[in-house]
TrEMBL record, chain A:
<feature type="domain" description="ABC transmembrane type-1">
    <location>
        <begin position="52"/>
        <end position="244"/>
    </location>
</feature>
<dbReference type="InterPro" id="IPR035906">
    <property type="entry name" value="MetI-like_sf"/>
</dbReference>
<feature type="transmembrane region" description="Helical">
    <location>
        <begin position="120"/>
        <end position="143"/>
    </location>
</feature>
<dbReference type="Pfam" id="PF00528">
    <property type="entry name" value="BPD_transp_1"/>
</dbReference>
<dbReference type="InterPro" id="IPR000515">
    <property type="entry name" value="MetI-like"/>
</dbReference>
<feature type="transmembrane region" description="Helical">
    <location>
        <begin position="87"/>
        <end position="108"/>
    </location>
</feature>
<feature type="transmembrane region" description="Helical">
    <location>
        <begin position="56"/>
        <end position="78"/>
    </location>
</feature>
<feature type="transmembrane region" description="Helical">
    <location>
        <begin position="164"/>
        <end position="189"/>
    </location>
</feature>
<keyword id="KW-1133">Transmembrane helix</keyword>
From TrEMBL, chain B:
<feature type="domain" description="ABC transmembrane type-1">
    <location>
        <begin position="69"/>
        <end position="282"/>
    </location>
</feature>
<keyword id="KW-1133">Transmembrane helix</keyword>
<dbReference type="InterPro" id="IPR035906">
    <property type="entry name" value="MetI-like_sf"/>
</dbReference>
<feature type="transmembrane region" description="Helical">
    <location>
        <begin position="73"/>
        <end position="94"/>
    </location>
</feature>
<feature type="transmembrane region" description="Helical">
    <location>
        <begin position="12"/>
        <end position="31"/>
    </location>
</feature>
<dbReference type="InterPro" id="IPR051393">
    <property type="entry name" value="ABC_transporter_permease"/>
</dbReference>
<feature type="transmembrane region" description="Helical">
    <location>
        <begin position="202"/>
        <end position="226"/>
    </location>
</feature>
<keyword id="KW-1003">Cell membrane</keyword>
<keyword id="KW-0813">Transport</keyword>
Amino acid sequence: MIALLFLYPIFYLILTSFKSPDQLYQPLAMPDSFYWGHYKKAIEKVNVLRGFFNTFAISAGAIGLMVFVSSMAGYVIARIPRKFFQFLFYFFISGMVIPLQTGMIPIFKMGVALHLIDTRTFMILLYAAGALPMATFMYAGFTKSVPREIEESAAIDGYGKFRAFWMIIFPLLLPATGTLIMLNIYGIWNDLFGPLLYLKNPAKMTLMAQVVQFKANTQSIDYGPIFALCVMATLPLIVLFFFTQKYMMKGLVAGAVKG
Amino acid sequence: MLKASTREWWTGFWFILPATALFVAFVYYPFASSVYYSFTEWDSIRPAKFIGWDNYAFLLEDSKMLQAAKNTILITLFGIVVQNPLSLLLAILLNRSFRTKVLLRVAFYLPVVVSLVVTSIVWGQILQYDGLLNHLLERIGLLAWERDWLGDTRSVFPTIIALTQWQGLGYCAVIYLAGLQAIPQDLYEAAKMDGAKAVNRFVHVTLPMLMPATTVVVFLTIVGGLKMFDIPYIMTGGGPGSASYTLTLAIYNAAFRENTYGYAIAGGIVLMIFIMAVTLLQLRVMRRKEVEM
């Protein structure tokens, strides 16, 4: 029964997007046939494919960069007990409580100065930096469960430090990487605040920014196309979620226990 | 020997450098320069003028800002007092083994997967005057309850609070669920052998063992509540009046609507100090409880 309260709005979203225009104002009615008109209209007005590409590129880029820098950092923090690295660790962690809103204006200025404003690169750098503290924390935790002997034998085999890390240690940290992807992809894909501030160019907009923009432009009432656009913007994540939910719950368990 | 450890140090240095550079450039440096700008009058076009504590003093007299602060604190408090116990209850229910378990977990987690933008738009439409909720109320004969849920000064903020709780419940429940599943079963069996009743088992086994999960959930609730932006931004724009204003929305408006950047940043700094103080206090109190068990 309570589950219905959680499922219904999403069900309602999908349902409404298929209702014919004259049914739109009968919220309780079921659509009598699949009406694709709203989708057609939304696609005509908004370049959904472009938005999808931007969103995907930004999410993938940010998560890739985050994994690259934080896995190495977490490894060092867990393995080398020097004061300097421990200090950096707390330095990173303290970043978790700084709200984005605090730095948004200097970040905007920096983006303008570096000619990075309105670029996907800028968004990638920002999201990767934002997700870094948590990721470093998690990689440091996971590294501790990797036996040291593995590195020692890699050194004996003549592996350099970098090669040993990427060829041998990093694959062992895969569960952490998976969890981090799961934890971050929804936040980055769905984020509105970043694109709202730093991506004004319609050609670079993410799906969420497109939705909000479209809603603002359509003014009040034409909910059909807005809902259709919402469905299209959300569908990739829902599909991903259905395929990975089992794995994700496991990841959250691991994350919650290690964190 | 010394040489080996120096080499280790340099390896570590190169390993940690990219993360540090990224962090300093996009988190620490903007934050540090924000601290400076919070003491200036600045519209981002003309150079900033140093005005000391004026921005901070003005924050305390700005009725919109104070309303926003009150709303933000209320959202956070509700998260801790209402959403937390509810999500624990939900997690316990979900932890029982019945057949629909997986389906239910998916259902409760969906609001987390679907973006706040989309859920805000859907709920916005459901809560409209001629929307689904009022139609339903009419159907079951509660005509008197009908209202413009988001347009009415009295109902708008409770509605927003309810929605924030709806949105966060699933996530908290999943973390509690993780915590529940990490409790070794033999603890319960031992308690049963000692003749502990279900209530006692819950109080003396489940709750203490869940303390780490509780710490995480409360932490996330506080941080999420204090940063609340998307729901009021999309659904009400903070209105009517400033009835559903939140701090981040007020700061956003001060910066990008009114071009009072220095003032907006001062608001951000206060919010940050607030979050830090509250979370530090929380972690301190709760970690101590964790040790006691």
